[in-house]
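Design job #97: recover the sequence.
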């Protein structure tokens, strides 16, 4: 599945995202060459989840089913966008974004969970490093 097919499938499973997609700077209408900037769209998809899908069970389930389809059947470019521009967005995000990713574990399929697992040690180290920096700053 290439990036064009991925967007088509995403919008079929999560039609509520259509308006956000149309307004995304990743949408082909914003690019001079009419290209789809999938990494930008994945960032928008993460924000959409936090704003609208997270509290809605049915929408959250469809959201993660769509992410799993892209993660498991997308071509290399689609899988890369899901991994580094969506999963990483949650994994390295603020406390609420990291909590949302953890809470959604039961909704994630095997390909998505494997991507999430790739960030667990880094996310823990990142939070630990942030806490160390904060303690040092308070001592000064």
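Job complete. Output follows.
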């Amino acid at each position: 599945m290439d990036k064009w097919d991925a967007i088509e499938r995403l919008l079929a499973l999560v039609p509520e995202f259509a308006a956000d997609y149309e307004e995304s700077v990743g949408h082909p209408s914003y690019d001079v060459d009419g290209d789809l900037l999938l990494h930008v769209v994945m960032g928008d998809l993460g924000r959409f989840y936090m704003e609208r899908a997270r509290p809605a069970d049915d929408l959250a389930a469809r959201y993660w089913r769509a992410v799993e389809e892209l993660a498991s059947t997308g071509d290399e470019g689609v899988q890369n966008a899901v991994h580094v521009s969506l999963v990483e967005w949650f994994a390295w995000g603020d406390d609420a974004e990291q909590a949302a990713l953890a809470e959604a574990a039961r909704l994630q399929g095997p390909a998505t969970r494997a991507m999430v697992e790739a960030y667990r040690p880094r996310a823990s180290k990142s939070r630990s490093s942030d806490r160390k920096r904060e303690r040092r700053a308070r001592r000064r």
